[in-house]
Each structure stands twice: as structure tokens, then as C-alpha cells.
Design brief:
This protein has five helices and seven strands; from the N terminus they run E-E-E-E-H-H-H-E-H-E-H-E. By secondary structure, it is α+β, with helices and mostly antiparallel strands. It has one domain: 60s Ribosomal Protein L30, Chain: A. The protein has a five-stranded mixed beta sheet. Helix 1 runs parallel beside helix 3. It binds magnesium ion.
């Protein structure tokens, strides 16, 4: 069996007047992430990790933000499409490990719901989805609450 690793990184700006979507779920917060889609930074990093593992370019290549079709789109739809692309190339998803950097709100209570949501979208076991949240100790753009960042690694397998 051939195994391959992929890595993804994404950033979105935090602004007033937007809903906050992370890991496929809506989280109550005073601000939300700005983007062409719902700006779910965690899902975008995960999609890029999946595409990277299969050497299939990146999320912007497949779902361009100049395309009206993707305006305001639920990122879970992008994740489902990404998983389809990976499976069409003959790969199965092993596991993923994701880190989200955000000063606020507290994300730990939402992690089980995110894991279950992503597992359902990806057709894998929630135990194969690790999500970790960290602050950056008030340092940098995440620490100043100007934005959020996410990092993801995934393992895919070709039976
Ligand atoms: Mg993005």
C-alpha cells in the first residue's frame, strides 16, 4: 500500500457583520471570517492538505473565488467535492490532524461537533479527525484578533 502525506494552511480576516463558521459548524461570536465563501478557514486548510497529498493543486485552482458559483458557498460542499476528487484518483483517506489558531472564542467545547460534522462530510470515522485549538498568546495577527489561521496534515492511502 502506498501512503502519502499532505499539508494545508489558510488564513481569513475577522470582521464585523459576518457569521463565524469553523469546522462546518456555526459558532456564536461577535465577529466572523471574511471570504468569498463562508470563509471556514479550518475546512479550507483541510481541503488544501487533501489536494496536496494527492498532488492535485489547491482549493483556489478547483474552486476559484472569481467564480460566482462559489460566492457565499458552504465550505462543506467544497470539502465533499474535494474528497470526491481524491477518491476518483484512487485514494482513500487515512487520518487528519488540524490546528486552529484563534485568540477567541473558546473553541474546545465545539471540537466534538466539528469532528462529527467533518467525519460525515468525508465519510470517515470521527476518530480519524483530530482538531486542536490554540491561542497565539496575543501575539501576531491571530493574537490581535485580526484573523484566524488553520494548519492541517492528512494521510491518504492508495490500496
Ligand atoms: Mg480560505
Amino acid at each position: 500500500m502506498k501512503t502519502r502525506v499532505g499539508f494545508g494552511f489558510d488564513v481569513h480576516r475577522l470582521v464585523e457583520g459576518r457569521e463565524l463558521w469553523l469546522g462546518g459548524i456555526r459558532i456564536d461570536h461577535s465577529r466572523g471570517l471574511l471570504g468569498h465563501s463562508d470563509a471556514d478557514v479550518l475546512i479550507h486548510a483541510l481541503c488544501d492538505a487533501l489536494l496536496g497529498a494527492a498532488n492535485m493543486r489547491d482549493i483556489g485552482f478547483h474552486f476559484p473565488d472569481t467564480d460566482g458559483e462559489y460566492k457565499g458557498i458552504d465550505s462543506k460542499i467544497l470539502l465533499r467535492k474535494t474528497v470526491e476528487l481524491i477518491r476518483e484518483k484512487g485514494y482513500a483517506i487515512g487520518n487528519t490532524d488540524i490546528t486552529l489558531c484563534a485568540e477567541r472564542p473558546k473553541l474546545n467545547p465545539h471540537i466534538p461537533a466539528m469532528q462529527h460534522c467533518l467525519a460525515e462530510c468525508m465519510g470517515i470515522d470521527p476518530d480519524d479527525i483530530s482538531i486542536k485549538a490554540t491561542t497565539t498568546e496575543q501575539l501576531g495577527f491571530t493574537g490581535r484578533e485580526e484573523g484566524m489561521a488553520a494548519y492541517a496534515v492528512v494521510l491518504i492511502e492508495q490500496p
